[in-house]
């Protein structure tokens, strides 16, 4: 979910509970998984389409070719994939020079991200929905955190990726 929606929902919740001063704890998940899900497969496809049309360039100014990403659904499958890649290099030199450290780092990173990539979580955003429903139309316009309204294709290709390119990768479109 775009960070501005998370901030806006947080502000709306603070405004709501600042008025009522109830002692109970309210938990708000500002998530789109139940209302307007973006799957990892769809995210990868949007990245692929973007970088195919507007590739980054290498140090020599040549476009970097992108390939469709394959989603690997388990650590076991990922380990088999790494092993297969390490042993099917085009030359013996590549096999010998392929660093074991890279494979260990890749396994470590995959393990760190496994909870976010291998499971099909759905976050209950019921409290956030109730908060939204109780707001007036004027408040909804001011706070603007309706996750149903997110156009994922537009957001990923026109906002998120250009932001990554400009501020993280440091390249221009």
TrEMBL record:
Residues 92-169 form the Fatty acyl-CoA reductase C-terminal domain. InterPro entries: FAR (IPR026055), FAR_C (IPR033640). Transmembrane segments: none annotated. It comes from the Eukaryota. GO terms for molecular function: alcohol-forming very long-chain fatty acyl-CoA reductase activity. GO terms for biological process: long-chain fatty-acyl-CoA metabolic process; suberin biosynthetic process. This is Fatty acyl-CoA reductase. It comes from Corchorus capsularis. The lineage of its organism: Eukaryota, Viridiplantae, Streptophyta, Embryophyta, Tracheophyta.
């Amino acid at each position: 979910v775009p960070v501005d929606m998370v901030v806006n929902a947080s502000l709306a919740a603070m405004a709501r509970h600042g008025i009522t001063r109830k002692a109970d704890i309210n938990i708000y998940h500002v998530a789109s998984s139940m209302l307007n899900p973006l799957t990892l497969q769809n995210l990868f496809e949007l990245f692929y389409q973007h970088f195919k049309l507007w590739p980054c360039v290498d140090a020599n100014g040549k476009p970097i070719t992108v390939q469709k990403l394959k989603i690997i659904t388990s650590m076991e499958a990922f380990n088999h994939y790494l092993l297969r890649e390490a042993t099917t290099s085009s030359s013996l030199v590549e096999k010998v020079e392929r660093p074991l450290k890279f494979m260990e780092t890749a396994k470590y990173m995959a393990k760190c991200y496994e909870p976010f990539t291998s499971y099909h979580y759905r976050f209950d955003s019921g409290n956030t929905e109730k908060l939204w429903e109780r707001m007036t139309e004027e408040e909804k316009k001011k706070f603007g955190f309706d996750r149903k309204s997110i156009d994922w294709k537009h957001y990923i290709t026109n906002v998120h990726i250009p932001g990554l390119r400009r501020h993280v990768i440091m390249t221009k479109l």
